[in-house]
Amino acid sequence: MFIRSINSYRRITLGFVIIASGLFLSGCVERPVSVANSATVKIVSRACQQGDPMTQTTLYFGLNRPNGPVITAKEWQSFVDNEVTPRFKDGLTVFDAQGQWLGHNGLVAKEKSEALMLIHTNTQESEQAIGTLQGKYKTQFAQESVMRIDHPVCVGF
């Protein structure tokens, strides 16, 4: 009986150790992570089951000028044709967006916007191109900011 109790105890202890180790080690699996460093976002690469690891960046461009007319469709398209496309020759996607927030005065503010989606490799060249686009838009259209969202993605054709 004493030997049987020791064997049962060992099995229970071994089972507990295996389960605890599995739970502990599951925290070591690499997951896609975004690490914010001030206004710059760096995407940590991950392995893809299919396709290649790339970054999906979506930029949001407000169309209201603080002290002037709304940015027209013609002005926006000219910016895309002359500034965006030459920097991202492999392609891009543009879609209409509607921004909304609660102002300091308690009123809901709305702004028509354009969203620009880029799929690119995470390189210094692409980072510089995106930063240049943000800067040029802010300067050309008197904007305070251009929102940027990055996601790691797997891309296949």
Give an overview of the whole structure.
It holds the Pfam family DUF3574. The protein has 157 residues and is of the alpha+beta class. The protein has 2 domains: 1-30; 34-155, Alpha-Beta Plaits (2-Layer Sandwich). Helices cover 34% and strands 32% of the residues. The chain contains 3 helices and 6 strands, in the order αβββαββαβ. The chain has helices at residues 2-26, 73-84, 124-140; strands at 34-37, 40-43, 52-62, 93-102, 108-120, 147-155. The protein has a 4-stranded antiparallel β-sheet, with helices on one face. A two-stranded antiparallel ribbon has the order 1-2. The N and C termini lie far apart (66 Å). The model is unreliable at 4-41 (pLDDT under 50).
| CATH C-level label of the largest domain | Alpha Beta
CATH topology of the largest domain: Alpha-Beta Plaits
Helix amount: 25-40%
Strands of the widest sheet, in order across it, are 4-5-3-6
Mean pLDDT: 81
How far apart, in Å, are the first and last alpha carbons? 66 Å
Name the shape in a single word: globular
DSSP summary, beta strand count: 6
* Helix and strand composition category: alpha+beta
* Biggest pleated-sheet summary: 4 strands, antiparallel
Helix tally equals 3
CATH architecture of the largest domain: 2-Layer Sandwich
Number of domains: 2
Strand content: 25-35%
Radius of gyration: 25 Å
N-to-C SSE series?
HEEEHEEHE
- Low-confidence segments, ≥5 residues, pLDDT <50? 4-41
Pfam families: DUF3574
GO cellular component, one term: ribosome
Keywords: Ribonucleoprotein, Ribosomal protein
Organism: Yersinia ruckeri
